[in-house]
Amino acid sequence: MLGNDIVDLTLAKVQSNWKRKGYLDKIFTDDEQNNILKSNNPDLMVWIFWSMKEAAYKIHNRKTGIRNFAPKSLSCTIHSSTYGEVNVEGDLYFTKTEISLKYIHSVSSPVFSHLDKITINIYEAPDNVFDYKSTEPGCVSHHGRYLALVY
C-alpha cells in the first residue's frame, strides 16, 4: 500500500493561518510543535509534518477501513531532510518527502525499502487535466495547482 500528499505552498500560504491561536495544538504533537517553533523555516515545517501525516493516514485508512482523520493522533518523526516516519495507533509508516519552492510532496509506505521504489508523477495545472484514473495509481493527491500520482 502507498500513500501520498502534496501541498501547494502558494495556496497554503493564502488559505491557512497556522499561526492563529490553537491551530498548532489541534494538529500537532508537543514534539512536532517544538520542531516547528525552533525551525529556521516554521512555515515549511508545518507543511512537511502535514504532508507526512496525510500520506500515512491514507494507508492507515485503507488498512483499517476507519475514516477518522485526527491529525494529532498521528505522530511524526523526521530522521533526515528526506526520510521520516509516522506512528498511527502503534502502526508505523515510513515517509519520504520532497521539498521544492512550489510544493511539498510526501510518499508513505509501511515498508521502508519500498520508498525508493515508488514511481512519482507530479503535474501542474493545466497539465493535470487528463483521465489519470486510467493509469491506475496506487494513491492520488491534489492541492491547488498540483496533482501527484504514485505507483
Plain-language structure description:
The protein has 151 residues and is of the alpha+beta class. It has a single domain (3-150), classed as Ribosomal Protein L22, Chain A (Alpha-Beta Complex). It is 29% helix and 32% strand. It has helices at 9-15, 23-27, 30-38, 42-64; strands spanning 3-8, 74-78, 83-88, 91-99, 103-109, 120-124, 139-143, 146-150. It has a five-stranded antiparallel β-sheet with strand order 1-5-4-3-2. β4 (91-99) and β5 (103-109) form a beta hairpin. α3 runs antiparallel to α4 (42-64). The longest helix has 23 residues, at 42-64. The protein starts with a strand and ends with a strand. The mean pLDDT is 95.
Structure, briefly:
The protein has 151 residues and is an alpha+beta fold.
What is the strand arrangement across the widest sheet?
A: 1-5-4-3-2
Q: Which structural class do the helices and strands define? A: alpha+beta
Write down the oligomeric state: single chain
Helix content: 25-40%
Number of helices: 4
Could you list some keywords that capture this structure?
151 residues, alpha+beta, Ribosomal Protein L22, Chain A, five-stranded antiparallel β-sheet, three-stranded antiparallel β-sheet, 4 helices, 29% helix, 32% strand, globular
Map the helices and strands.
Layout: E1 3-8, H1 9-15, H2 23-27, H3 30-38, H4 42-64, E2 74-78, E3 83-88, E4 91-99, E5 103-109, E6 120-124, E7 139-143, E8 146-150
Antiparallel strand pairs: 1-5, 2-3, 3-4, 4-5, 6-8, 7-8
